[in-house]
Amino acid sequence: MKLTDEMIEALKKDLSGAKNYSDLMGPDGAIKKLIKKSLESMLETELADHLGYEKYSSKGKNSGNSRNGFTTKSIRNDNGEIELNVPRDRNGEFDPIIVEKYQRTLGPIEDKIISMYAKGMTVRDIQSHVEEMYGLEVSPTLISQITNKVMDLANEWQVRPLETVYPIVFLDAIYFKTNHDRKVVNKAAYTCLAIDSSGKKDLLGIWIGETEGSHFWLSVLTELKNRGVKDILIACIDGLNGFPEAINTVFPKAEIQLCVVHLIRNTLKYIVSKDTKPFLRDLKTVYTAPTEESAKISLEKINEKWGKKYPMAIKIWQNNWQYSASFYKYPGEIRKIIYTTNAVEAVHRQIRKVTKTKSIFPNDDALKKMLFLVYRDLSKKWNRPIHNWGIVYSHFSIIFKERMGKI
After folding, report:
1. β-sheet with 231-237: strand ranges across
2. pLDDT band at 219, cuts 50/70/90?
């Protein structure tokens, strides 16, 4: 919509009388008056379009609907509260777009409230900040209404179509406390972080479950397949029992790589403190070995040296060798990416920074809303391929030639 001559002249008059910042941007300032006139003019244009004829036009006679005065409405934006005269039609069918029927805020103020919420600020903190910065009194209910709009975006994001093939996917869960049937329970937020064909990070979804288990992961993976994923080349996971089998049930060709860091941590549970350093020094020869065969030789030497004293520590590696040795076949650029689930754990650390002020979430939807907002902020930094992606992609193109061709 263009400014009318009348609006321009009125603005010139207001500006000519402005002596300070308040005269421009204050509660009765020129800018606020311009916004009011602009919005009211837009609303009149919308009503004319809805009715099919301009104001005072003879086309309105016997049309079956007509203008029916105005409704006064208060709307909040960065300039404070603005009183609008919203036109209405006699049949009550007019549903404006520029200022929706139940809308109470306008423009950047909504985005700022959502941004503050996404950064972990409490409702009370948001109230104080908005009042201090913009002179607006916003209720907890209004803040909730604004942030609840995010749920529609989160639900759309959660069911969006995905790529056909993902070269690398990291699967892990993070725990939170929520209210459920008047009880505080632990809930697992299942996160699936992928490296896509362009080498960029992409969170494929967030799912809330009672506890982390292979059965729930099976449903998550099935959903990914239903959303278009045909193949995963390498899946990086922790040591959850039954997890590799769940992945291969849905994606039979996916290679599984157990997180080496998790294996090391689990191993150290069986080692007394005085032996920790020498044991770790020997263990390092296993996970830094140039080939799988040399790694097996190193593990056998450790077994000969420490096996009698720490048999359970050695068994952890022997029992999990099938899924912990996948990375040996790849060059250093790929090993560095897949030997640990650190990529998804880094996402979890960022989530913790934001959610640390919320000890208990009122329900699952509140938790989903917060996690989606954190993801939305994080994803703004995921606009570049990961380091050495060109080399990684070249190797994958050779090793997984037929499967990469589907990308």
Report:
1. 201-209, 183-195, 165-180, 231-237, 255-258
2. very high
**DSSP tag of 192:** E
Kindly provide the residue ranges of all beta strands, DSSP E only, lying in 181-262, ordered along the sequence: 183-195, 201-209, 231-237, 255-258
- Dihedral sign of CA atoms 391, 392, 393, 396 in order: positive
Nearest to 382 by CA among 224, 199, 204: 199
Does residue 197 contact residue 165 with C-beta atoms inside 8 Å? yes
pLDDT at 22 over 80: no
The pTM of the full predicted model, rounded to 2 decimals, is 0.71
Amino acid at 255: E
Q: Tens digit of pLDDT for each residue in 144-163?
A: 777 777 788 889 999 999 99
Amino acid (one-letter) located at 171: L
pLDDT higher than threshold 60 for residue 11? no
User: How many CB atoms within 10 Å of residue 251?
Assistant: 21
The phi and psi torsions of 87 (rounded to 5 degrees) equal -70, 155
Residues 6+ apart with CB under 8 A from 381: none
Mean predicted confidence (pLDDT) in 189-205:
96
Label residue 1 by pLDDT band (50, 70, 90). Answer: very low
What is the residue extent of each domain of the chain?
1-106, 166-363+386-404
For residues 333 and 196, give the distance between their C-alpha atoms in angstroms, rounded to a whole number: 16
Instruction: Answer yes or no: are the C-beta atoms of 98 and 46 closer than 8 Å.
Output: yes
Q: Which two tokens stand for residue 32?
A: 């606020």
Would you call 77 helix, strand, or coil by DSSP? strand
If you search the block for the tokens 């009194």, which residue do you land on? 137
Residue 271 has pLDDT above 70, yes or no: yes
Q: What is the DSSP letter of 68?
A: E
| Cβ 319 vs Cβ 217: under 8 Å | no
How many CA within 13 A on the CB side of residue 20? 4
> How much is the average pLDDT of 33-40?
71
Poorest-pLDDT segment among 72-81, 203-212, 232-241, 250-259: 72-81
- 221 to each of 160, 224, 252, how far by Cα in Å? 15, 5, 12
Do 243 and 266 meet the contact criterion of CB atoms below 8 Å apart? no
- Beta strands, E only, 196-266: 201-209, 231-237, 255-258
